[in-house]
Amino acid sequence: MFNTTAQFIRHSLYPSKQALRLRLAPLHAYMLASLAVTFVVTFIDFLVLQPAFFWPMWLFLHGFAIFFFYMGLVAVCALIVQLVTKWRTKKMWAYRQTWPYSVAMSLLPTVILVLLYHVSPDASWLGILLLLVYLIIPLFQVPTKKIRT
Predict the structure, then answer these.
(1) Which residue from 87, 80, 86, 44 is spatially nearest to 63, judged by alpha carbons?
(2) Which class for 112: exposed (0-12), middle (13-18), buried (19 or more C-beta within 10 A)?
(3) N or C: which end of the chain has fewer CB atoms below 10 A?
(4) What is the biggest distance separating any 2 CA atoms in the chain, rounded to whole angstroms?
């Protein structure tokens, strides 16, 4: 289980044609990867924000909120992936395929987005741009049917 999750994370670090196979990843791989991103982002926020609140409760509540909002981001990314695949191949990927792919392609850009936000909130658009690049660039390597005339 942890081997497939580590492999899932490793293949999602760079947007390549290999990343397209991640759309068929098992449930435990992309959910554990989502939890890993939640823990990393929560830890980064904890270090930067240094809350004056009871820290175990803060970590729990903040981690829950980060996971909730990350799943919302993945849902939006999955819809973008469906639109791009429909536009490119004239056949939309099923949502059960776009969700793991969207999780994979948003792992690193989400962490970078949070870091950029803490360093310079005005530079957050670079993180969003990176997220779109990670999502869309591999989709241009999806084979399309040639129309014969």
Answers:
(1) 44
(2) middle
(3) C
(4) 69
pLDDT in tens, 73-126: 999 999 999 999 999 888 888 889 999 999 999 999 999 999 999 999 999 999
SS3 call for 49: helix
Alpha carbon distance 131, 29 (integer Å): 20
Q: Which amino acid is at 14?
A: Y
What pTM does this model have?
0.88
Q: What is the 3-state secondary structure (H, E, C) of 64-96?
A: HHHHHHHHHHHHHHHHHHHHHHHHHHCCCCCHH
Measure the CA–CA gap between 39 and 66, rounded to whole angstroms.
Answer: 9
CA 131: distance to chain centroid? 8
Q: What are phi and psi of 52, to 5 degrees?
A: -95, 20
- According to DSSP, residue 139 is labeled G
